């Protein structure tokens, strides 16, 4: 609901679609004048809710029918599911095709807790070098606090923008992320922690608390302070892991480290390899997720839209 309200403020129209078994999906639509119809996408939906992949695929197909009848041109769906051949086959049979992710990452690094785990047990499984960085950050006087009021959100947005530039993903003020963060922090799902040193923001992490676990959404630190104050993100991530453990959650999602465009596990030389090493050092496992899919429902309108886009880019280039 919070995401729907945020997207509505940016010109999208939210629709709440219900299925049998009390399952739901948020579908966001937007017209493309002067072309007829609209484009539609179901962010992280239709919600899987632990159902079989074939059931989730069937709901995606049903959404396609609903959007087509309403006059839509194209529909994108991106439920959060582990990769599954049955899901892929069901969507391919309904003429859906794989498309690039709307999110920065597709796959995830998940830290699972073992039965009876306590802080000492989880900390002992962290790589030695990471434990040393955590202790070094503490010794340097760095602290972690939850910023429920969002006092540091603007400064955090600047950190994310610099991280996006280094890691080659899209992040810009016009996307309204800071406004979204403020909105989600007003709900029980939004959590924001900051690492501070002498009152300075050194790093931050936003996570969503839903589905029985914490999922990292955004994290960044001040790269220019890494030599002076090493271990900020190590301490920050360890603090959030402790929060999940104390809440009795079975796992924590540390977020993605994808190589954009190819989506494989990072290798040496990739821009996100260092981030992969950092998150994996906590004992997190690489979990492959199903890709986003789309279906073209009115091909002639879709082709006209692509042609118009090429013309606009050509005109701007000549200008």
Compact summary:
With 319 residues, the chain is of the alpha+beta class. The protein contains 10 helices and 13 strands.
Describe this protein with a few key phrases.
319 residues; alpha+beta; Aminopeptidase; 7-stranded mixed beta sheet; 6-stranded mixed beta sheet; globular
Gross morphology: globular
Could you state the CATH homologous superfamily of the largest domain?
Gcn5-related N-acetyltransferase (GNAT)
Number of domains: 2
Unreliable parts: none
State which percent range the strand residues make up.
15-25%
* CATH topology description of the largest domain: Aminopeptidase
Sheet with the most strands, sense and barrel status: 7 strands, mixed
Radius of gyration: 21 Å
Structural class: alpha+beta
Note the total helix count.
Answer: 10
Name of the CATH first level of the largest domain: Alpha Beta
Order of helices and strands: HEEEHEHEEHHEHHEEEHEHEEH
Termini, distance in Å?
41 Å
Q: Report mean pLDDT, rounded to a whole number.
A: 89
Helix content percent band: 25-40%
- Main sheet: strand order: 7-8-9-10-11-6-12
- CATH architecture classification name of the largest domain: 3-Layer(aba) Sandwich
How many runs of DSSP E, i.e. beta strands? Answer: 13
């Amino acid at each position: 609901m919070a995401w729907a309200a945020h997207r509505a403020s940016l010109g999208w129209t939210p629709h709440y679609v219900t299925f049998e078994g009390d399952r739901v999906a948020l579908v966001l639509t937007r017209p493309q004048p002067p072309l007829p119809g609209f484009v539609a996408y179901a962010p992280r939906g239709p919600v899987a809710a632990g159902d079989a992949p074939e059931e989730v695929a069937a709901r995606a197909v049903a959404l396609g029918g609903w959007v087509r009848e309403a006059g839509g041109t194209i529909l994108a769906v991106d439920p959060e599911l582990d990769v599954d051949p049955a899901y892929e086959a069901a969507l391919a049979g309904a003429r859906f095709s794989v498309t690039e992710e709307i999110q920065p990452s597709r796959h995830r690094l998940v830290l699972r807790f073992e039965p009876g785990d306590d802080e000492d047990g989880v900390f002992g499984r962290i790589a030695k070098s990471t434990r040393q960085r955590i202790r070094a950050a503490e010794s340097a006087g760095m602290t972690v606090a939850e910023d429920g009021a969002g006092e540091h959100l603007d400064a955090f947005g600047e950190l994310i923008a610099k991280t996006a530039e280094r890691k080659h993903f899209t992040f810009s003020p016009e996307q309204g992320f800071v406004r979204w963060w403020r909105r989600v922090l007003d709900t029980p799902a939004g959590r924001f922690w900051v690492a501070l040193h002498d009152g300075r923001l050194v790093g931050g992490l936003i996570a969503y608390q839903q589905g029985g676990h914490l999922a990292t959404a955004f994290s960044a630190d001040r790269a220019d302070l890494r030599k002076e104050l090493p271990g900020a993100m190590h301490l920050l991530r360890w603090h959030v892991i402790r929060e999940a453990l104390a809440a009795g959650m079975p796992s924590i999602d540390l977020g993605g480290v994808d190589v954009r465009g190819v989506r494989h596990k990072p290798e040496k030389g990739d821009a996100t390899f260092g981030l992969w090493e950092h998150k994996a050092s906590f004992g997190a496992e690489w979990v492959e997720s199903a890709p986003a899919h789309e279906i073209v429902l009115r091909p002639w309108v879709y082709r006209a839209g692509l042609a118009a886009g090429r013309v606009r880019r050509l005109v701007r280039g000549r200008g």
